Amino acid sequence: MSTPTPRTSHAPSISAPSARDLLGSALYEEAVGYAVARTGCAPGRAESQVRECLRYLYLVSRHRDRLAGLFLPVEQDIDEIWHFLILQTHEYQRLCEQRLPGRQFIHHRSIAYGVYQERHALDRGRERSAEEALRWIPLYTAAFGPFDADAMPHWTVVRFLHEQLGMSLAEISALPSHTPGLRQPEPAA
Prior knowledge:
- By secondary structure, this protein is an all-alpha fold.
- The chain has helices at residues 19-23, 25-39, 43-62, 64-67, 76-87, 89-99, 113-120, 126-134, 136-144, 156-163, 169-173.
């Protein structure tokens, strides 16, 4: 008789559907083909792009209450897949309203992170901006497990933490939902 392996904080706590399940095989293959044709990347890399785009949409849909209005910086390749999906209007609407957990249409607005930061600088201090930039990471790992080398290049913050700050993917994946050392905003007087 084997002893069950205890669950770690890195194991997915929910069973999130795969990108292929969310899109259906035909649209999934079209999206992968689009990524290959657009970038010349290998099919495996294109599949990673499509997977991470769908994970992004899944998080935004599932956690509207925690992520609405926040800028979740993903790399351009993910944004391009999202643009491709939006142009498949019927399928994109069905994805948002029938297949993703929030069951609501997800609108898209292109804006550079620097512009977003400038527009919200008066509303947010540095600590709050940092908390918002990290808020989605525990939600990602709860749904999909720890970040791996295939996922990391598509998420701007994860790539920054790994490449610029030297954090391992395991350390990034273990970030708590409230990052110690970041103060909560003081109430207005």
